[in-house]
Amino acid sequence: MGSFKSLFSDKALAEDIIKANEKTYWKVRSERLGEDEHFYLATTLLRRFEARKRLGQNPLSGITREYGLSPKDEKEMLSMITAAETRLFSVLDPPDSIRALALYIVYKEVPSEAHRYEEEYNRILGPIMKMEEDGAFANLYRKKNPNMARQMDELDRAE
After folding, report:
1. Which of these, 95, 102, 94, 5, lies nearest to 44 by C-alpha position?
2. How far does CA 101 lie from the centroid of its chain?
3. Average pLDDT, the chain
4. CA distances to 9, 83, 99, 117 from 106, in Å
5. Does 44 score more than 70 pLDDT?
């Protein structure tokens, strides 16, 4: 067994983040069969945010204080953030989709360890980034996430 310090090292934390988010993702998939990939990924990230909030690490704490968000407004804001932050990953097939999201979370939460996963992340997401640059992403998104695309269209029409 490693030293006490190694149990709490950034490397161990990054590995735990990856495992925890992959586990959450597969649980969400088993609970809600037939949803779009974007739903599964956004829900996984939302659950991550909720868990961090319970630990006193609210990702919106500064915004909530500055703008006086109600709990309902805060939940809506988190939903918008998770949808935006998981959009690119949502056109990938699992397990690449959740792996890319988990690596992204490591980048955000343990930036000192991001370099360990940079090559893998770029390999998984590189083709998607190219599609985004070339303007081909939207069509693939609609094909892979028809329910979410329909909801976004409805929101656009309502505005």
Report:
1. 102
2. 5
3. 88
4. 13, 18, 11, 9
5. yes
* Per-residue tokens: 33: 């069969």
* DSSP-derived 3-state class of residue 110: coil
Residue 146: cis peptide before it, omega within 30 degrees of 0: no
Q: Which amino acid is at 68?
A: G
pLDDT the model gives residue 2? 46
Answer yes or no: are the C-beta atoms of 109 and 48 closer than 8 Å.
no
Helices marked H in 32-95: 37-54, 61-67, 71-86
Task: Measure the CA–CA gap between 114 and 122, rounded to whole angstroms.
Answer: 12
Percent of the chain's residues with pLDDT above 70: 88
Radius of gyration over every alpha carbon of the chain, rounded to an integer in angstroms: 17
Residue-wise over 96-125: b if at least 16 C-beta within 10 A, else e? Answer: bbbbbbbbbbbbebbeebbebbeeebeebb
Q: Record the pTM.
A: 0.87
The rounded distance, in Å, linking the Cα atoms of 133 and 124 is: 16
